[in-house]
Amino acid sequence: MSKSIFITGATAGFGAAMARRFAQDGWSLILSGRRAERLDALAEELSGQTDVTTLVLDVQDRAAVEAAINGLPEKFNKLTALVNNAGLALGTTTAQTSSLDDWETMIDTNVKGVVYCTRLLLPRLIAHGAGAGIVNLGSVAGNWPYQGGNVYGATKAFVKQFSLNLRSDLQGTGVRVTNIEPGMAESEFSVVRFAGDKSKADAVYQGVDPMTPEDIANTIHWVLNQPPHMNINRVELMPVNQAFAGFAIHRK
Ligand code: NDP
Ligand code: 8X3
């Protein structure tokens, strides 16, 4: 049986890099995202290497996620891996000045999207059994507070705890669960966070030598290629030039 991987948010950044990495090994790809033209281009690029299925999908839309997953061809009744990668941060403003709409979009995508895809694909992962795996994209923002991280960091803290709790529930099924917790990696992430302001986004990475989407894809590839008796619970990774700040003290 060829290995199969369902990747959400495959139209950019980590997701596109993962699609390319797993295609090299001949895994069947199910690639999803909202931008159809990006999915088509990726399918065209990779279909010479492996079997590619694309799903134009907004993970915030529960009915659409249900319809897309229920409509998958029979060959995916057993799925090797799910990567809950689709996600975003919006803004770096403090809580008292943030937009409630932005907060809702982050919760709907980073929390509800992950929950929908996981619940709906679990039967196929359990049917695969030993060697199957769920990889969730958490973040250092789920572990460490920073000013302006408010709801984004909280969604990633949810993802971390959901991953750990899934591990508990999936005992005996053979399905592994890993939370990947990256720090700064250059992708479209900051362009999205700063509402399309490319110069603001570029400034984030200036002089840092950030991680790349390929670094993250290689890490996930390593995680999913461990022997079936091994579960990598969490991986926190940062560029060398990123570290921790101390406590913030406000003096009157
Ligand atoms: P990108 O912005 O480059 O890619 C994000 C992907 O998510 C795109 O393919 C986008 O596709 C998809 N996406 C966003 N919203 C939705 C939605 N509602 N439905 C379906 N797909 C959606 O970001 P990254 O690759 O950097 O980020 C990937 C994940 O990693 C995210 O969860 C992010 O929070 C996390 N992360 C990123 C870090 C970084 O520094 N870059 C660090 C730590 C974690 P489309 O717009 O076509 O729908
Ligand atoms: C993205 C990493 O540090 O910008 O999750 O929050 S950070």
Summarize the structure.
This protein is α/β, with parallel strands linked by helices and 252 residues long. The protein contains 8 helices and 7 strands, in the order βαβαβαβαβαβαααβ. 2-hydroxyethylsulfonic acid binds next to loops.
Q: Can you tell me about this structure?
A:
Helix 3 (62-70) runs parallel beside helix 4 (100-128). Helix 4 links the parallel strand 4 (81-84) and strand 5. The protein has a single domain, classed as Rossmann fold. A seven-stranded parallel beta sheet has the order 3-2-1-4-5-6-7, with helices on both faces. The N and C termini lie far apart (66 Å). The protein is globular, with a radius of gyration of 18 Å. It has helices at 13-24, 36-46, 62-70, 100-128, 150-169, 189-193, 198-205, 213-224, and strands at residues 4-8, 28-33, 52-56, 81-84, 133-137, 176-182, 234-237. It is α/β, with parallel strands linked by helices and 252 residues long. The mean pLDDT is 98. It is built from eight helices and seven strands. Bound molecules: NADPH dihydro-nicotinamide-adenine-dinucleotide phosphate and 2-hydroxyethylsulfonic acid (8X3). NADPH dihydro-nicotinamide-adenine-dinucleotide phosphate (NDP) binds at residues 8-15, 33-35, 38, 57-60, 85-88, 109, 137, 139, 182, 184-185, 187-189, 192, 213.
